[in-house]
Design brief:
This is Heme-NO-binding protein. By secondary structure, the protein is α+β, with helices and mostly antiparallel strands. It is built from eight helices and four strands.
Length: 190
Amino acid sequence: MHGLVNRAFQGFLCDTYGASLWEEVALAGDLPLQGFEALLSYDDAATERMMVLAAERLDKPRSALLEDFGIYLAGREGLRRLLRFGGADFVDFLYSLEELPGRVRLAVPDLILPEITLTHFAPGSFHVGFRDSHPCFAKVMCGVLQAMADDYGALAVIALHEDGQAVQVDLFETAYASGRDFLLTLPDGV
C-alpha cells in the first residue's frame, strides 16, 4: 500500500481518536510507532493489521470506520480542492469521477487509483463502480461521496453496493442546503 494512504489513515486515527489510539494500534500491530513515511510503499498486510486493530479497539465495524475515513479525507483541504475542481454542483462532480484517477496521478504519480465508472441508470440514481480495486476502496469512497454531497449542499443517500465494489448514489435534490464556499484561488495567507 502506498505510504500516503497509510499515513492518512494514521492521521485520521490521531486527529479523530487521539494519539494514544495510534500508539496502541502501532504497538499491537508491529507498525512504525513514529508513523508511516508518505513516499514509501508498505506491505498490504501492515495496512490490513492497522485497520483491523483500529476497528477492534474502537469496537466499531470496519466498514463504518472506513466510511468515516473517507469523510475525513474529503474534509482535508488539499483533497477537497482536488475533488471540488470536478464541477460546479454534485452532479457535475459525479460525472467527473472517471477523471479522478488521472488527476490524482498528476499530484502523486505513483499513487494508482482503480478505474472509476459512472452509470446514470434512472433520474437521480447513479452507480459508481471501481474496477480492480482494493476491497476497502468502495467503503472509503462511500464516505468521500457523502462528504462531497454535503460539501455541495446536495441531498443524497449513498450506500455500498451489495457486491462491495461499487457505490449507489440516490440524489434527491442538488441544492438542498447551502454548500461550503469554494474559490478557485486560495485565500491570501494559505
